[in-house]
Design a protein that fits this description.
The protein is of the alpha+beta class. The chain has 7 helices and 23 strands. The strands form 5 sheets. It has a 7-stranded antiparallel sheet with strand order 7-6-1-4-5-9-8.
């Protein structure tokens, strides 16, 4: 009996000690630690919330109802590395960027191609009908307009885009609503193929881009637009970290041309070149019958050395010069034929896309 009393006393004493020295072990009291920072004093050095707040009013979601009746709608697709026919679905979705305070919106052409109805939803969930101001399939861009005074995004400068810079993609991926993803600039001035149109080049990023992001904004850490997200290359079908955006200088050019002319006017002479030629200059491997080059006397196997007195060493040099020329302009092309140099004047005509 004495032993039992002794055990009871020892047990009681132990319980009292535990209660006072370690109350959290046997008590019901739960303690958690919460931040005491005031929102205005919070350290945002590792946050991009301010960038998102600056940009989100300028990014919209686009919903379309499409027809399968229209045919022969083409655009440049970096995944296919070529000019491809638009594949239709009854409905579609994408993103867009408000480019002006008058309600002009830049998006991808493939987002709205073949659409019978285009609906724009802003960051606040308000819906607007649209009109198409103009399209440019060769850069996969289109300009829309809504009847609303809007908050236009701040435009960046192509000269300030560097590999390794922070890049933020904002859009409506998979229809889940406005979303921001973080990455860096993986490459600049990226061409999709040596024989594609050279003015069709890209900024590459590893920021997550998914279907629905097309037409949305790629911005820098200052919230300035540096590109329009357009496509991904993916093995899995998801965001594998190889995304492409149309760089801001091309976007600005296309927007300006469409606003001024209703379309992008590019020069055309009707030649093709050999991409594997390794000599000095550019080797002509095709001349379209009846084209300005054909009328002027350019022949297959001519080697183009200069245009307007400027040496050309790559196909993209020629494409850029001719593409930026206006219909009716005369260019001076120096060519080498049978070992001799000669100059030929070519009257540039207008490039037709259809």
């Amino acid at each position: 009996m004495k032993e039992i009393k002794g055990y009871a006393i020892v047990g009681a004493i132990t319980a009292i000690i535990i209660y006072f020295l370690a109350p959290n072990i046997v008590g019901n009291r739960i303690e958690v630690v919460e931040s005491i920072h005031h929102p205005n004093n919070y350290n945002n050095s590792n946050s991009y919330s301010d960038v998102f707040k600056k940009v989100n009013k300028s990014v919209v979601s686009i919903y379309t109802r499409k027809s399968t009746a229209r045919k022969n709608i083409y655009f440049i697709d970096p995944r296919e590395r070529a000019l491809v026919k638009k594949k239709y679905s009854p409905t579609g979705q994408g993103s867009g960027v408000i480019f002006s305070s008058q309600g002009h919106i830049i998006t991808n052409f493939h987002v709205i191609a073949g659409s019978e109805e285009i609906l724009v939803k802003d960051y606040d969930g308000k819906e607007y009908g649209t009109v198409i101001v103009g399209i440019d399939p060769l850069t996969d861009l289109a300009v829309l307009k809504i009847d609303k005074n809007s908050s236009g995004i701040t435009l960046g400068n192509i000269k300030n885009i560097n590999i390794g810079d922070i890049a933020l993609a904002i859009g409506n991926p998979l229809g889940v609503g406005q979303t921001i993803t973080l990455g860096i600039i993986s490459a600049t001035d990226k061409e999709i193929s040596p024989n594609a149109y050279s003015y069709q080049r890209y900024v590459q990023t590893d920021a997550a881009i998914n279907p629905g992001n097309s037409g949305g904004a790629l911005v820098n850490s200052n919230g300035e637009l540096i590109g329009i997200n357009t496509s991904i290359i993916s093995v899995s079908g998801g965001a594998d970290g190889i995304g492409f955006a149309i760089p801001i200088d091309i976007v600005k050019y296309v927007f300006r041309e469409i606003i001024q002319n209703g379309e992008v006017i590019r020069g055309y002479v009707g030649i093709s070149a050999e991409i594997n030629y390794r000599g000095l200059g550019v080797l002509v491997n095709g001349v379209i019958p009846g084209s300005p080059a054909d009328i002027s006397g350019i022949k297959i196997n001519d080697i183009i050395k200069k245009i307007n007195g400027k040496s050309v060493a790559e196909i993209k040099n020629i494409q850029k010069i001719i593409g930026n020329s206006k219909p009716g302009q005369v260019i001076d092309m120096q060519i080498q034929r049978d070992g001799r140099l000669t100059n030929i004047n070519i009257l540039v005509s207008k490039m037709n896309y259809y």
